[in-house]
Amino acid sequence: MLAETIKQVKELKKKASKLEQDSCGNSSKDVVKFPSGADRLNLEKCNNEEGLVKATLSCEDSPGLMSAISRAMGSVKTKVVKAEIVSVGGRNRSVLWVQGLGNDRMRMLKSSLKIAMHKPAFKMRRSSQ
């Protein structure tokens, strides 16, 4: 029974790896699940679907970062179809699958995301009471 369970787990891992690989050509072994120490931004077209782009960014986690990323997406009128976000030790890693981008809008998105990544942290105001 244990041998059969191990066999099934291995088969499921293969299927999961294939699914991840199909969503923009990265196998699960190649994908780092945590934010990197350096600021990085990468956009790549997904081969399996027309107009689907995978945007991966790693930067300092700050208040307002998700709002800035959302505004960047809205500025190029794209639709996020999937998102994976990890925040660890003051760093953020966001992977966004975006639909509806041509080459010109891909450049616009990259520029907008760079601005969002390096935007100064939103300062909270204290209300005087």
What does this structure look like?
- With 129 residues, the protein is of the alpha+beta class.
- It has a domain at 32-118: Alpha-Beta Plaits (2-Layer Sandwich), CATH 3.30.70.
- Helix content is 37%, strand content 26%.
- The protein has three helices and four strands, in the order H-E-E-H-E-E-H.
- It has helices at residues 2-22, 65-75, 103-118, and strands at residues 40-45, 52-60, 79-88, 91-99.
- It has a four-stranded antiparallel beta sheet, covered by helices on one side.
- Helix 2 runs antiparallel to helix 3.
- The longest helix has 21 residues, at 2-22.
- It is flat.
- The protein starts with a helix and ends in an 11-residue tail after the last helix.
Fourth CATH level, the homologous superfamily of the domain at 32-118: ACT domain
At the first level of CATH, the class of the domain at 32-118 is: Alpha Beta
Q: What's the CATH architecture of the domain at 32-118?
A: 2-Layer Sandwich
- Strand adjacency order, main sheet: 1-2-4-3
Largest sheet: 4 strands, antiparallel
Uncertain residue segments:
none
Provide a count of the helices.
3
CATH topology of the domain at 32-118: Alpha-Beta Plaits
Number of strands: 4
The average pLDDT score comes to 80
How much of the polypeptide forms β-strand, as a percent range?
Answer: 25-35%
Q: Give the overall shape, derived from the CA principal axes.
A: flat
- The secondary structure category is alpha+beta
User: How far is the first residue's CA from the last residue's CA?
Assistant: 67 Å
Question: What is the element string, with H for helices and E for strands?
Answer: HEEHEEH
> How much helix is in the residues?
25-40%
Nearest-angstrom radius of gyration?
18 Å
